[in-house]
């Protein structure tokens, strides 16, 4: 068994040497092919292992990090980056994750790319690309200072069907050569698997967000049903909406009696809703939504015709995109809920499924309507009880007292004792006074609902003002306020009080505020503070509204103010004629 083939007779040494050389080259080529097959097998095994790992329920950040690590191993790249596209219209990079750069290099480079130059070109042309020298491409912008040198380049889109999630960028092939066809094919396979994994991760995150909206809807519905105060209900609703939408500001608007849009609840700014003046209906986004009943997406709230958005002290000028949805129930549209995001948080708005806040608002409006209906039913039961009590007092108690009084009067005429006759007359007078008191009680039972509402509303407004003023204004009532402030005057009384307290909180720098409401021939609201008084060049937009409200009801509004001596606002209109 010889290790070499025997030479033929006459064969030269030179020919034998050539044959040995050809055999060695063939052997080396065979071994090289075998090594390539083994390396390719290892790469595909590594790819398979990566696919299995990506399906193991990693978080999105962990998944992206795993993808670039595997890409570096598969293609033998020194540097790898994964650019994830945002969900907005511009389709620029939302995330840029790197592999191969140490923290010092990342800090020296500065801001990571957002999707321009060659990276932007690949975003606009989502096809694999290989370059011998990245700087030679016509779209290349070059590298920033302190950026490590990079020449060879391989770019592959991460996609699922026609949807592109981002791109894999590989540079600096090991050994200094170029990336090969095999590198491209195996990275394309990795990118395809990564697209499926990223889509699954995003679907999981979207399902979690939907679950949060459903949980918030259920919680708000529960709270709205058990909360007795209407203003607290709206505040609860708007705070939950802002939280679950991850918005920066949220508000609820509704038409007031003058057709202007009033802010009923506000979250996201350190200011009570009552401190915001009403907006003209024609200039309000909320008014358009309430009239049309259709939600509206706003690209730039700061530039929109919402007057409050122009108030720098509230921070509304920093707002960017927004959403205004109607609060629509069976009875119609009762208001509008607005959500706003800062300009630098546009990605949060773009990732929002608009159907979720719309459904949330509809469910909340239905819950508010059910809560009001239940209140009306409870109020009806209360009225029936009051009506029964009033009938019993009139038909039984008063009649019996009246009969007793007549008997005592008759007995007084039968006696000649002046002292006894005087005592009987005094008893009859006491019975008459008792009958009058009972009749006043019967009348109050019939009108107490309206009276309690107006007085309770005034008390609530004063209590809310304490949060802005840092002290509670004093409050007094004089006369039959419950009876003489009717449905026509009540909304204006509340609006004027809210405007006066808002002015005191924002401009007066007062340490005490006194509020008084009296009712007699006229209903008079007085708000007095000890602040710095009105400046000479004060713009009287709010005060002009107060005067117009008074004049419309046949009354007047006077404002007395002096520098350093405070301001007194006296608003007076005729009392309800029928009640008086």
UniProtKB/TrEMBL annotation:
<dbReference type="InterPro" id="IPR050482">
    <property type="entry name" value="Sensor_HK_TwoCompSys"/>
</dbReference>
<dbReference type="Pfam" id="PF07730">
    <property type="entry name" value="HisKA_3"/>
</dbReference>
<dbReference type="Pfam" id="PF13185">
    <property type="entry name" value="GAF_2"/>
</dbReference>
<keyword id="KW-0808">Transferase</keyword>
<dbReference type="InterPro" id="IPR011712">
    <property type="entry name" value="Sig_transdc_His_kin_sub3_dim/P"/>
</dbReference>
<dbReference type="InterPro" id="IPR005467">
    <property type="entry name" value="His_kinase_dom"/>
</dbReference>
<keyword id="KW-0418">Kinase</keyword>
<feature type="domain" description="Histidine kinase">
    <location>
        <begin position="496"/>
        <end position="577"/>
    </location>
</feature>
<dbReference type="Pfam" id="PF02518">
    <property type="entry name" value="HATPase_c"/>
</dbReference>
<keyword id="KW-0902">Two-component regulatory system</keyword>
<dbReference type="InterPro" id="IPR036890">
    <property type="entry name" value="HATPase_C_sf"/>
</dbReference>
<dbReference type="InterPro" id="IPR003018">
    <property type="entry name" value="GAF"/>
</dbReference>
<protein>
    <submittedName>
        <fullName>GAF domain-containing protein</fullName>
    </submittedName>
</protein>
<dbReference type="InterPro" id="IPR029016">
    <property type="entry name" value="GAF-like_dom_sf"/>
</dbReference>
<dbReference type="InterPro" id="IPR003594">
    <property type="entry name" value="HATPase_dom"/>
</dbReference>
């Amino acid at each position: 068994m010889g290790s070499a083939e025997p030479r033929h007779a006459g064969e030269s040494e030179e020919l034998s040497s050539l044959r040995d050389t050809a055999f060695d080259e063939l052997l080396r080529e065979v071994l090289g092919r075998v090594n390539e097959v083994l390396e390719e097998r290892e790469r595909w095994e590594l790819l398979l292992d990566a696919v299995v790992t990506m399906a193991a329920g990693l978080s999105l950040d962990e998944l992206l990090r795993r993808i670039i690590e595997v890409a570096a191993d598969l293609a033998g790249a020194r540097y790898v980056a994964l650019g994830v596209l945002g969900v907005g219209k511009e389709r620029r990079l939302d995330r840029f994750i790197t592999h191969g750069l140490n923290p010092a290099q990342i800090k020296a480079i500065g801001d990571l790319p957002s999707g321009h130059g060659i990276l932007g070109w690949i975003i606009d042309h989502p096809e694999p690309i290989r370059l011998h020298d990245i700087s030679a491409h016509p779209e290349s912008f070059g590298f920033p200072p302190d950026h490590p040198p990079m020449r060879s380049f391989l770019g592959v889109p991460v996609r699922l069907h026609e949807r592109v999630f981002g791109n894999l960028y590989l540079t600096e092939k090991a050994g200094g050569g170029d990336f090969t066809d095999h590198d491209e094919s195996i990275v394309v396979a990795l990118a395809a698997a990564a697209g499926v994994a990223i889509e699954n991760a995003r679907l999981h995150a979207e399902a979690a967000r939907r679950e949060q909206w459903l949980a918030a809807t259920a919680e708000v519905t529960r709270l709205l049903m058990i909360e007795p105060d209407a203003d607290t209900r709206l505040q609860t609703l708007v705070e939950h909406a802002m939280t679950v939408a991850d918005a920066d500001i949220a508000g609820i608007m509704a038409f007031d009696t003058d057709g202007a849009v009033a802010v009923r609840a506000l979250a996201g700014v350190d200011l009570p809703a009552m401190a915001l003046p009403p907006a003209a209906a024609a200039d309000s986004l909320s008014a358009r939504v309430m009239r049309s009943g259709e939600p509206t997406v706003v690209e730039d709230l700061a530039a929109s015709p919402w007057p409050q958005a122009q108030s720098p002290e509230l921070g509304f000028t920093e707002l960017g995109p927004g959403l205004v949805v109607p609060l629509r129930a069976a009875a119609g549209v009762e208001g509008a809920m607005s959500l706003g995001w800062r300009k630098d948080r546009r990605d949060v708005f773009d990732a929002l499924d608009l159907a979720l806040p719309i459904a949330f608002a509809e469910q909340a409006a239905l819950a508010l309507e059910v809560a009001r209906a239940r209140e009306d039913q409870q109020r009806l039961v209360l009225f029936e009880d009051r009506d029964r009590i009033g009938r019993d007092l009139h038909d039984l108690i008063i009649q019996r007292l009246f009969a007793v009084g007549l008997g005592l009067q008759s007995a007084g005429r039968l006696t000649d004792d002046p002292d006894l006759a005087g005592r009987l007359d005094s008893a009859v007078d006491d019975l008459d006074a008792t009958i009058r008191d009972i009749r006043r009680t019967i009348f109050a039972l019939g009108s107490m609902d309206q009276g309690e509402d107006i007085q309770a509303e005034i008390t609530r407004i004063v209590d809310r003002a304490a949060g802005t003023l840092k002290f509670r204004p004093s409050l007094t009532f004089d006369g039959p306020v419950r009876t003489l402030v009717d449905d026509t005057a009540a909304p204006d009384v509340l609006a004027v009080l809210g405007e006066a307290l808002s002015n005191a909180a924002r401009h007066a720098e007062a340490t005490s505020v006194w509020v008084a409401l009296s009712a007699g021939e006229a209903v008079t609201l007085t708000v007095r503070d000890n602040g710095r008084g009105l400046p000479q060049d004060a713009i009287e937009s709010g005060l002009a509204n107060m005067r117009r409200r008074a004049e419309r009801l046949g009354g007047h509004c006077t404002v007395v103010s002096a520098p350093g001596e405070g301001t007194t606002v006296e608003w007076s209109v005729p009392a309800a004629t029928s009640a008086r």
